[in-house]
Amino acid sequence: MRAYVVTSGRWSPSRNTLDHITLISLTASAAHLRHTHLNPEQRSILAALAGGAQSVAELAALLSLPVSVARILLADLLESGHIITQQRITQTATPDRTLLEAVLAGLQQL
């Protein structure tokens, strides 16, 4: 299906806060919200999220959609209260210098 049909002709999301690794999950009230105004792709996203949080990239791959199209659909679901975003999983502590030096030494020995 053509992307402009799925997105109703829109080429950018209403929110630009969703990157590839943003985690998406259902809101507590998602099951009680109206789904009749959602397109089939948005319903598929909600079904995929029933099993737990997934990243934007994972959802796009699961639905065989370009990430740009998935971001538009997800922004709509975010505005309608069906989904929420969670913290990224990439936030980590600053690496230890000793550990990095040991890794570098190991790589140099290869």
Automatic annotation (TrEMBL):
Pfam families: DUF742. This is DUF742 domain-containing protein.
